[in-house]
Amino acid sequence: MNKIHAAITAVNGYVPDYILTNDELSRMVDTNDEWITSRTGIKERRILKGAGLGVSDMAAQAVKGLLDKRGIAADEIDLIIFCTVTPDMPFPASANIVADKVGAKNAWGYDLQAACSGFIFGLSTGSQFIETGRYKKVIVVGADKMSSIVDYEDRTTCVIFGDGCGAVLLEPNRDGVGIIDFVLKSDGSGASFLHQKAGGSVNPASHDTVDAKEHFIYQEGKSVFKFAVTNMADVSAEVMERNGLSSADVTWLVPHQANKRIIDATASRMGLNEDKVMVNIERYGNTTAATIPLCLWEWENQLKQGDNIILAAFGGGFTWGAVYLKWAYDR
Ligand code: UT7
Questions:
Q1: Under CATH, to which class is 5-176 assigned?
Q2: CB neighbour burial string for 201-222, b if at least 16 within 10 angstroms, e if fewer
Q3: Which of 6, 247, 263, 272 has the highest CB neighbour count under 10 A?
Q4: 54-74 pLDDT, tens per residue?
C-alpha cells in the first residue's frame, strides 16, 4: 500500500476589515510611506478593532469557512493545532476556545508557539498525526492579533505588523501528494533580539512592567534581518536539495511575509523568478503565524494538483524552516 501523506484539502483565511495605511501611521509616529515601502514592501495592514475580540474570533471565522468549503461538519475534526504568539489569554489554549466556538466537540487541541515559523511548525507536527494513520482530519490554524502587542509609539515595529488568520485542513492521501518533507530549526540564543519581555514567569505583569512598555514586541531589526536572510534561504535550498528539486521543478515559493527584501533574497538563492513567489506583504504586513496560510488562501485558485510548493519562514525564537509539499487538488 502507498505511503500516507498529509495533504492540505482545503484552505481558508480571514482578515479584519479595518485597513491601517502607511499614511495613517505617518500621522501617529515619525515615519512615511516612502521609508516603509522601500524598507519593507508594506503599504497597509489589517487591524482587528472592537472590545473583547481576540485571535480566536478571527480563527472561528476562518475555520467555519474552511469546514463549509470542504463540506464537512465540525464534529468530524479530530485535532486543532493553533499556532500563535497572541493567544486570547495565556491559558487555556486558543485551540480549545476556537473548537468551542465552531462546535468541534470531538476535537482536542493545543497551541503551538513558534512565532513567525508557527504555521510551518504546526503543519509539520499536524502531518505526523495523519501519516501515522491516527487521525483523518486535522486543522492547522495560523493566527495573530499582532496589534495587541505592538507599541503604536514605536516606529521601528508598528509599521511592520498586522492582524489576520489562515487555516488549512489536513487529510490522508495515498496518491503521492501532500507534505513530502520538512527542515525545521530553532536557536534559543536568538531570544535576545526579538521577544516580549514581560507577562511570563520570569517577569510577570505588574504596574512596573506596564509602565516600562514591556508587554510590547521588542525587536532589534537589523540583527534579525541578517539571521532571517541567511537562514530562510539556507533551509529553502536544503529542502530542495534533499528532494532533488531544481528551480525549474518548484512551482511556488510561499515565504513568510516579514520583509520584501528577505523574500527576494530567498527567491534569488532558490533561483526563482518573482512570478513563482507568493507576495501579499503590501496589503497585510507581517501577520506572524498567519502569513503563509493567508498566501495559500489568496493563491488557491491558481494552484494545481501536483504543484511543487516550498513554504519557508523565519521568526522569533529564533525559529526557522521550510516545508516541501505537493498540492493535492484543483479548485
Ligand atoms: O517576522 C519575524 C522576523 N522579523 C523580521 O524578519 C524583521 C527583520 N528586520 C527588518 O525587516 C528590518 O530590519 C526593519 C524593517 C525592521 C528595519 O529596516 P532596516 O533597513 O534594517 O532599518 P534600520 O533598523 O537599520 O533603521 C535605519 C534607520 C534608522 O535611523 P538612523 O539610525 O539611520 O538615523 C531608524 O531609526 O531608519 C530609522 N527608522 C525609521 N525611519 C522611518 C526605523 N524605523 C523607521 C520608520 N520610519 N518606521
A1: alpha beta
A2: eeeeeeeeeeeeebbbbbbebe
A3: 6
A4: 999 999 999 999 999 999 999
